Amino acid sequence: MNKLFYGDNLEVLKKYIKDETVDLCYIDPPFHSNRNYHQIYNNIGKEDTAQTQAFLDTWTWDDHANIGLAEIQENYLGHFTTQAIDLINGLTKVLGKGSLLAYLINMTLRIAEIYRVLKSTGSFYLHCDPSASHYFKLILDAIFCSQGGDYKNEIIWKRTSAHSDANRFGKNADRILFYTKSNDFIFNQLYTPYEENYLLKNYKNKDKNGYYKSDDLTGAGATNGDSDIEWHGYKPSKRSRHWAIPTQPIINLVGIEKAKKLTTKEKLDLLLENDFILFTKNNTPRFKRYLDINKGNVLQELWTDINAISSQARERLGYPTQKPEALLERIINASSKENDIILDAFSGCGTSIAVAQRLNRKWIGIDINYQSISLILKRLEDSFGKEILDLIELNGIPSKFMVQPCDKIQIITVKDLIENQKRLDIRLSFEVLKSAEKQQQIKSNQMKLEIEV
Ligand SMILES: C[S@@+](CC[C@H](N)C(=O)[O-])C[C@H]1O[C@@H](n2cnc3c(N)ncnc32)[C@H](O)[C@@H]1O
After folding, report:
1. Model pTM greater than 0.85?
2. Which of 118, 161, 208, 289 has the fewest CB atoms within 10 Å of its CB?
3. Cα–Cα distance for residue pair 75/104, rounded to 1 Å
4. CA of 107 to the centre of ligand 1 (A)
């Protein structure tokens, strides 16, 4: 059954999610941008205890940070590798006990739990931005790679069109770090459609099997042994190269198990027999890469073709930092299959959950904000009908919050409040003041709020 938890993901993971039960985890946590988006969100006309605090992306060194640090240093429950402990000790020396370290400790505690709940074949995608991605790579290497896992990609997602940032290049891209728990994992190759210009330029040759382009069968750098055998008079190391034979056509011809056992010579002979090799004038063998018009280009790690959600988009729910469904569709399609369990421990308005549901995956969602939970339920009901609600196990949600699930979220910016002296419900006003205080750039006495009691 699908599960939706209202609460702090660290506690939920520890208490409710068993070891090695999740196939794919995607998280999109607050980014350590040290800003709070200047937004307070308000469930219009309904319950107004907007839990803005959890959404504020501002961090301070406090008791939580001290406890978290001790938990890692003392290797609480044995969840931390020596590398992770040494890394956090090192970062404590380098960064000092401040905002950034508090954020990284908070995330390390959660990532260690995510590692625990992932199946050995599981994959992990961490969505972040360049302000902390370099630290995340260290943390993920220390948790995943030190235990037999692997770093796969740093996906760069171009999230906005060009804009100018003062005195530097425009910052318009997020990072998504992709790791696996072992070397045995699911990866479904994805493709992007060919552009017409690309086709005309690259696939000029044609034979009885169709259009093809001539591609390398070797890679740069000389080696010896099997990847440097002489074949049809060609010895790669003489040109400072080694054999680098594409694996997919071999798998297509003989299947994955047999493909693993073939020597370089056997692979080359197989490709030649099946008309996948041509020889240039100077006798260099080249791979004939046939055009599969239905597939397109193999998807690379630079993603520029998925736009952020526009103000007019149908999927837009008004939740700050909502991600486009197309982004999650790509991740879920690449790293899972039907009926797999997808976990999103920072669910927001449930983009990953809605996509997982549509792609027939099972899912677990967690968020610390009740409006997020409420919005996820509404989103699922709108997309899949009322019956879907019976298939969800709700956990930790105070029933008074769930009487009327919210529809859309109204964003009120702190600036709006100051400029328009918006009238507010008293509880929301309190949240606004707390948030403004946290921002520090706006002093609370700058704000003239008219409070409705
Ligand atoms: C950047 S948003 C996620 C947006 C999401 N990807 C989407 O498309 O809607 C981060 C979410 O993490 C939640 N969050 C922050 N700290 C949390 C915690 N400790 N436990 C659970 N959820 C948390 C926030 O309430 C917020 O909804």
Report:
1. no
2. 208
3. 16
4. 12
